Amino acid sequence: MDALMAASFDPRFGEAWTHGQVLGVLAMPGVRLTLAFIDNVPAGFALVRTVLDEAELLLLAVAPDFRRQGIGGALLRAAIADVEQSGTKIMHLEVRAGNEAGRLYAQNGFHKVGERRGYYRSVTGTAHDAHSYRRFSPEK
């Protein structure tokens, strides 16, 4: 997973997590990791945490060689379905301002609800804003 993480996030933006951060979150209750494989090669993942009646998409990543093939959308829809199946109605996420993934989130029912100035820090110390999104599951 470390190689997939490193390949999936541009170090200019400081979005990738360390091995220790991932292990620490995976040990928490309510955390689910979904991996996507193409021909036994890790292509992407979604990391979601559910607390009480709300969920947060912590990370969604697709390796560069597998982008533009629908993997990110499939991972996002799987995460949403998993959250909804558990009865959770609200899902949150944050994404760097300017990240193309914002369109994917909007296409899947997420709406921008806020902004955090300087949330992400690159390896050079450059600050990048984060946009906060929320999705309410439709009533069945």
UniProtKB/TrEMBL annotation:
CDD domains xref list: NAT_SF
EC class (word): transferase
Pfam family, one: Acetyltransf_1
Protein name: Ribosomal-protein-alanine N-acetyltransferase
InterPro entries tied to this protein: Acyl_CoA_acyltransferase, Bact_Acetyltransf, GNAT_dom
Gene3D superfamilies noted in UniProt: 3.40.630.30
Residue ranges occupied by any N-acetyltransferase domain in the UniProt entry: 1-140
Gene Ontology molecular function: any one: protein-N-terminal-alanine acetyltransferase activity
Transmembrane residue ranges: none
EC assignment: 2.3.1.267
Key words, A-Z: Acyltransferase, Transferase
